[in-house]
Structures are given as C-alpha cells and as structure tokens.
Amino acid sequence: MILVLGPRFSGKTTYLRSLGLPADAVADDAELLVAQTDEDGLNALMEYLAGMRVVAMGDIQRGVVPSSARERRQRDRAGRVQQHLAMRAERVVLMCCGIPLPLQEGPCA
C-alpha cells in the first residue's frame, strides 16, 4: 500500500491520478472516513484501509490544536490511523507544493 499525506491543495489528487490506478483501488480523503468512525470501529477501518492499494490522507497533525474535545479526539484518531498505515505501507509520500517527497520505502520493521 502507498500512503500519501499532505495538507489540502498540496497536489495529492494530481499525484493519485498520475499513478493510473482505478478509483476503487484508492481511498482518497481517508481522514473523512476516520471522522465518521467511532472508536469501536477504528481497528476495522485501519484494516480496510491497509488493504487498499493507495490511501491519501490530509495532514491534520500540524497546525493549531482544536479547542473542542471532540475535534481533538478526531485528530488523535486520524494520527493513530496514519501511524498504523505508515508502519504497514510499502511507500509513504508527503506532498508539498505539488512535489511528492518520499518519506519511507519499504514497510517499517
């Protein structure tokens, strides 16, 4: 699986299209799936996403910490999902200004 991270409008969609994969092989905006999943369903969601060919998630870990407890929990869950996927990914790419920056090649040991 390829994990593509980056803030909004960083070029993730353009990069995903350049891979030439069918739409059903790509989980785009996966952070929205995390937001719709309660704590009990998080492990199942992580397994589902790990089975995709490509997962793209907004990089919501940087920036201002949300003031509401609900938004902080959502941000924490998204961070846990990103960590889980990065450990299992064949490749992790950070998109910055439309440039794919490789962070990891091969799964973590």
Textual characterization of the structure:
With 109 residues, the chain is of the alpha/beta class. The longest helix is centred in the last third of the chain and has 20 residues, at 69-88. Strands 2-3-1-4-5 form a five-stranded mixed beta sheet, sandwiched between helices. Strand 4 and strand 5 form a beta hairpin. The protein has one domain: P-loop containing nucleotide triphosphate hydrolases (Rossmann fold). It has four helices and five strands.
- What value does the average pLDDT take? 90
Report Rg.
13 Å
Q: Looking at this structure, what is the CATH superfamily?
A: P-loop containing nucleotide triphosphate hydrolases
Low-pLDDT runs of 5+ residues are none
Shape: globular
GO molecular function: adenosylcobinamide kinase activity; nucleotide binding
InterPro entries: CobU/CobP, P-loop_NTPase
Protein name: Adenosylcobinamide kinase
Organism: Berryella wangjianweii
SSE topology sketch:
Elements: E1 2-6, H1 12-18, E2 26-27, H2 30-35, H3 42-50, E3 54-58, H4 69-88, E4 91-96, E5 99-105
Parallel strand pairs: 1-3, 1-4, 2-3
Antiparallel strand pairs: 4-5
Helix pairs in contact: 3-4
In short:
Helix content is 39%, strand content 23%. The chain has helices at 12-18, 30-35, 42-50, 69-88; strands spanning 2-6, 26-27, 54-58, 91-96, 99-105. The chain contains four helices and five strands.
